[in-house]
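>> Question from a student workshop board

For tomorrow's exercise we were told to take the sequence and the ligand below, predict the bound structure, and bring the output to class. My setup keeps failing. Could a helper post the expected result so I can at least see what it should look like? The ligand is magnesium ion.
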Amino acid sequence: MKIYAASSWRNHHQPELVRKLRQYNHEVYDFRNPKPDNSGFSWSDIDPNWKNWSPIQFINALMTDISIEGHKLDQEGMEWCDVCILLLPCGNSAHLEAGWCMGRGKPVCVYIPDTFREPELMYRTFIKNNIPFPFCLNFVEVLQFLDYVQNNYMPTRDEGLTFAEYQLKSWEKRAKAPDPVFLPGLGLGLTGEAGEVADLLKKVLIHGHDFNREKFIEELGDVVWYVSALAKAKSIPLIEIFKKNLLKLNTRYPNGFSTRESIERKDESR
Ligand SMILES: [Mg+2]
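>> Workshop helper replied:
Here is what the output should look like for this input. Compare the format with yours to find the bug.
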């Protein structure tokens, strides 16, 4: 599984946890080494005097390139993972990460190998219908948790995928093709799948077939896959497409569709 190990630089169990998980063939995002040439984010890279910052200095530091890059790597790790392990003791950052993962429908395991700072009622948040007991006291229990998740966990409807997660995960399934034909291939795929949607409609409207909801969902999904991949190939987040399309529709039809406004196309004269 893909695991985000959320913890603290001060937690001496963290490197061992990462190493052992990898021994068991899990992929792990390690904030100490997020990339081969990167030894992780550190406030002291921005200012050796960071411990004495005022609130304003802290907020300014969040806007620096070092912060932006450090946060981007962690955020991508959170988007990428299937599961988050919150290794105690740890600080605000790891708890925010675990909360974000939970909010995105990813199971969170609270691993307490020895000491912990204080009881915290909100850890109950990690108990979900299909994750009945997310607390582990040793590595064997962590493995059992991961095994349970792998075999039993299904995100519930209200914990659905984000566009970003869909785009990232679906992109991993693309067929490799040489550069000159990769993008045209996606374009052909999109029109091919749109054709399959049209074919289903034709069968219902003209050939008298029953409407097959599951098949319709599958073919629309194929169309979405190609839209997502074409966008990803050009580094365009799916959400940007949805937002801009909605903006265009709101500008063109502020009170809903009308023939006059469809001819006027206000959005194109902006
Ligand atoms: Mg298809």
